[in-house]
Design a protein that fits this description.
The complex is a heterodimer of chains A (108) and B (118). Chain A has 108 residues and is mostly beta strands. Chain A has strands spanning 4-7, 10-13, 19-25, 34-39, 46-50, 54-55, 63-68, 71-76, 86-91, 98-99, 103-107. In chain A, strands 2, 4, 5, 6, 9, 10 and 11 form a seven-stranded mixed sheet that branches. The chains are: A mainly beta (108), B mainly beta (118).
């Protein structure tokens, strides 16, 4: 099973700042099968990025994904008030699919 | 518009059973991988099971193998999760999710709460 480790656990930033979230895999993630999700309290997760770097439908271009192999990054170029949430990475190249523990982006 | 609506959650004693349902609209379930994902209170996400388009492939996370069964009813365009021998640690919000581009999960339901407690 591939273990995904996200860092930091919490990121305290102000609106307008840049957020950089990390996701490290215990083994190489095949074929860039890495996704990022956003979850707000009481809501279901929302797909942001798939294939490590492709934005899902309707996702603003301030969200970008990069990386390959075992190291992946989600970048939010300028935080908007609605971006404060928990973010999860997920790999689905190997069974079982696994999620990282999440990074909470909170208002500083 | 794609929609997924889960139902069937509730309070059950350890060792009991529940059957979760997920009604899909705006697309045909049998054209996609379909998944169940759970989230224990205050915790992260855990993939539970999925079913392939042709129903020949059904896969489970190790902790539920032999206890949970995923299935689909194409006539009702619905997904199910039969959960037997429930344990306290199965307590969670259960989401159904569609397998989207590169098998990411592109649409999610609002979730149904399962509480296993005596």
């Amino acid at each position: 099973e591939i273990v995904l480790t996200q860092s930091p656990d919490t990121l305290s930033l102000s609106p307008g700042e840049r957020a950089t979230l990390s996701c490290r895999a215990s083994q190489s993630v095949s074929n860039y099968h890495l996704a990022w999700y956003q979850q707000k309290p009481g809501q279901a997760p929302r797909l942001l990025i798939y294939g490590a770097s492709s934005r899902a439908t309707g996702i603003p271009d301030r969200f970008s994904g990069s990386g390959s192999g075992t190291d992946f990054t989600l970048t939010i170029s300028r935080l908007e008030p609605e971006d404060f949430a928990v973010y999860y990475c997920q790999q689905y190249g190997s069974s079982p699919s696994t999620f990282g523990g999440g990074t909470k982006v909170e208002i500083k | 518009e794609v929609q997924l609506v889960e139902s069937g959650g509730g309070l059950v004693q350890p060792g009991g059973s529940l059957r979760l349902s997920c009604a899909a609209s705006g697309f045909t379930c049998s054209d996609y991988w379909m998944n169940w994902v759970r989230q224990a209170p205050g915790k992260g996400l855990e993939w539970v099971a999925n079913i392939k388009q042709d129903e020949n492939g059904k896969y489970y996370v190790g902790s539920v193998k032999g206890r949970f069964t995923i299935s689909r009813d194409d006539a009702k365009n619905s997904l199910y999760l039969q959960m037997n021998s429930l344990r306290v640690e199965d307590t969670a919000v259960y989401y159904c999710a569609r397998g989207g581009p590169m098998r990411s999960f592109d649409y999610w339901g609002q979730g149904t709460v399962v509480t296993v407690s005596s």
